[in-house]
Task: structure prediction
Amino acid sequence: MAAAPLQSDVLQTAVDALEIHGSQAAAARALGWNRTTYRNRLMAAQLAGHIGIVDRQFEIPDLPDEELGIDDVMERRRRIYDQRQLAHDARRCIPIKIKTPGPIALVVFGDIHVDNPGSNFPLLEAHTELVRTTEGMFACAVGDLQDGWVGRLAHKWKDQGVTAKEAKKLVAWWVDTLADRLLFIVQGNHDAWTRGINGEGVLDWIASQANVVTENDGIRVSLELPSKHSIKVNCRHDQSGRSQFNPAHGVTKAALFGVKDDILLAGHTHEFGYNPLLNSETGRACHPIRVGSYKHIDDYARERGFPDKNLSECVTIVIDPNEPDSRHMTTVFFSPFQAARYLTLIRARS
Result:
């Protein structure tokens, strides 16, 4: 049961004793109270309004607070949220206007790991040159452009054959070579490892210099073609969901239960999976694809006994706006070389 509030005269007695005796210890002795009791009653008197402003014999200036006032804090919070909301809405589905008329191809580079000794660098060079020299081809990347070893894995740099600075140069070479054909880069977990305490990584800086769009975990774009067709592409470094029977399970799950896009992409696991569907709402094919990796020699996979499922490290989707059957407007090729021959043929005919 709560104690009854002290009477007003008791509180006033505590206040008067302090004014008379000058200190709490002297006031408590004069009243015959212990110091704890006196201090509690003095605090109660203050809360009850018995103690006002003390008439001190000195003045202290009002010192400004180090922090902003509440009105300024609230205004800053509004501005921060408005800016975040603006950036968030702009990335819901980024429109990319394609200027090249006729059929085009989207060349999807899987996990490159350009600085890894087991990565097939000659093949990466060949695919890069193919995109650069083939009219109508555009590129994107699902992430992990480099190893970027950190933490407990930093010891693996001794097996790389290149330094961290050389790795940065290799990444910059690839981005710069395809800059005018590179639609976007999704950063993977290895790319994220290179970010410093300020949140900016090597790939962030390289992409900004080349004016290439890059997002940390995933991106959704709409390829706006001159024919007025639009192709929705949803790319993440990884789409959640695993199945021992279907490497494309996570991407397929996203297609079935997420947004109804034309092309859904992922990488990360260094295995290829493809599970085409028909989108009954649009009448178009839906292509859930998990792209493989250029890392053909993988010590970790060998150690764990993982089977090789790397059927395609560079999937290519040819988009033909002239195709009358909307189900067949997009065609997937496992080899960009085959796709380039087909693309050149139908572009000539169109």
Observations:
- The longest strand covers residues 218-224.
- The chain has a mean pLDDT of 89.
- Residues 152 and 193 are 12 Å apart (CA to CA).
